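Lesson 9: reading folded outputs for more than one chain in a single document. The general rule is that every protein is listed as its sequence immediately followed by its structure tokens, and records are never interleaved. Here is the first one.
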Amino acid sequence: METNSLNLFIEINNLEFVFVVVESNDNNYSKIIFKQKIPIQGIKEEKIFDYDSILNTFKEKINSLEKKLNFFFKDVVLIIDNFDCSLISFSGFKNLNGSQLMKENITYILNSLKLKINEVENKKTILHIFNTRFILDNKEMINLPIGLFGNSYCHELSFFLINNNDYQNLKKILSECNLKIKKIISKNFIEGASLIKSNSN
């Protein structure tokens, strides 16, 4: 039997809050069933300056949405476009000495780089992690070279970061609306992915 689910998205950009509800089913079919834009308030110069104003706006909108749809949301996907976010790249290395590159080697590099980010950028929270480059024996590979043999491997990752205070404020506002943050997505990332999808060159 096919089941439908409702997902809540909130976009925060420079001009407005955008509330979107997407209905999806088991066949991966999705459609927007609700969308409303509200002039932004409580955020100025990429910072939250009026917590109560944002909280009241969110509570009012989410409560009315749940009544309208007869559905209670448990989590939300945030799409942000006006916070002070940053991007930083790090490379991790593994000496293979002629052995095979294994998934465990990639996991080790990933965890090591995440720890390094937490040391260097301890006032920021990781939002996205991107695989940027894979280099096996000084040759750049198109895909992750798991299973190939070599002497040295370099894996470059790019980290998209948000200030801890901004993240915690957003988390607390939504918690008071009885919502957990399922994911935070940069609007720039969505626009970039859309551009790549529409133009393979």
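And here is the second record, again sequence then tokens.
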Amino acid sequence: EGLARRAGYHLIAGVDEAGRGPLAGPVVAAAVIFPPNPEVPGVRDSKMMTARARDEAFVVIHGEALAAAVGVVSREYIDEFNILKASLEAMARAVKALDPRPETLLVDGIHPVPLPITQKCLKKGDQISRSISAASVIAKVYRDRVMRSYHRMYPAYGFDKNKGYGTRQHLEALKRHGPCPIHRLTFKRVLRD
């Protein structure tokens, strides 16, 4: 953010996604624009935070951000295209939903968002950029809530606990019951014999 501000950008959006690896559910991306020097103590890469810390940070981030938005891409889209294209589409949807519009993007990872806007891709960006860290928290909390709601529809798979990841219990449920409507049918571990 500091380098981007020194380059003359004021509206800098951090962008990240959650849910590339699970066997079920959507992929969710978030984009966050902070003012200079936001008060967001404890916000870091969502994978390094407890669920409770993420929930608390979710509220703080929304209170400090100039703008925050999510983009959600369905299991059907993931199966039709692939998880990388779906992740980038989710990021594009999140960025398009921001108001005000960002002048530049800081993107977690090595793939640019397919939008005509200046951007910098950062490996491990969720560990070095505050706005990307915030986006990782927003995306993860939002997706976890979606998966908990799916658990009420399909309780046999334990989505409230595994969030769609291939845990032993989830894989055993897949063997027993087969895939449900939110399983990613193009993922090898879903349709094992």
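What the second record shows: The mean pLDDT is 96.
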